[in-house]
Amino acid sequence: MQKKWFLLMTVVFCITVSLVFFFLQTKQKPEAPTQNLPYYASNEIKVESQDYIDTYINWQFNEIDDKAWTANFNFREPFWSDLKKCLNDQENLGCWQNLQKNYFPTYGLVKIKEDLLNLRNYPLVSLTDNIEFSDFQIDLENGKGSFNIIFPEGFKNNEKAKFGFGTTQINTAQANPFDVEKTNICRSPNKIHVAWKYSSTNIGYANSSDGITWMQNTSFHVNSSGSGERVYEPTIDCQGNNITVVIPVNVANDLVVMISGDEGETWKRYTPIVNGVIRYLASV
């Protein structure tokens, strides 16, 4: 009787242990929270703050190349229509008083009138060394204007300037050289390979045999001067000694492919697709 009881308890114990083990093995682990990685699709000039007159101005910044941008601005409605009435009838005190009451109640009338009559001399002030301005134009008939922002040392992070009568402040944000949806690093038998967007016109490439010392080329692919070509984030792939880098560019939506058969020692350039690449789908 005791032997049967012992055997029964042994069977129950084994079954219980098996069920517990099975439950622990099959229990779904909670998913790690998704991290929102900071990523810019391209370089960016951001408006950090606006007040006074510039509260009623819209801005648009367009990249020309790595050293130059165009800034376009226009006055918002109904502010522009009200201002234009005063500009066309400058001696009408009531017009200026209504402008002050409706838009600038905390500013003095003399200052408001003086600044608004001086829009052709709209101030542009650099707050860091690597910003200059050129070709300022303003159309007071239509309430819009433009000028160029120049970065003599190339576009960099955290370059600051202020526009207007001390009112609009901008800051720069450089593009993430890596695309979180693409492969920018891979490994061949003897080397580690990395490709990235170095600037709006250049693709960089580097390799290392130990991960400590690197051979780097920031002009791995570069546009011809004045062509208007801009590059997008590359994708890299390693298959044995064969390394492939795929680079979408915006000249006729071409796709450039760089191929090496000797782990990055030498490269050949191909353009297998022209006039029809959708950059976000280009990958190896």
Please, could you describe this protein's structure?
- The chain is α+β, with helices and mostly antiparallel strands.
- The protein has 2 domains: 44-173, Immunoglobulin-like, CATH 2.60.40; 185-281, no CATH class.
- 19% of the residues lie in helices and 35% in strands.
- It has 4 helices and 16 strands.
- The strands form 4 sheets. Strands 1-8-7-4 form a 4-stranded antiparallel beta sheet, with no helix packed on it.
- The radius of gyration is 31 Å and the shape is elongated.
- Mean pLDDT is 81; it is low at 23-41 and 276-284.
Short description:
The protein has 284 residues and is an alpha+beta fold. It has helices at residues 2-26, 79-88, 93-103, 109-116, and strands spanning 44-49, 57-65, 68-75, 124-126, 132-139, 144-150, 160-163, 168-173, 185-187, 192-197, 202-208, 215-222, 235-239, 242-248, 255-260, 268-273.
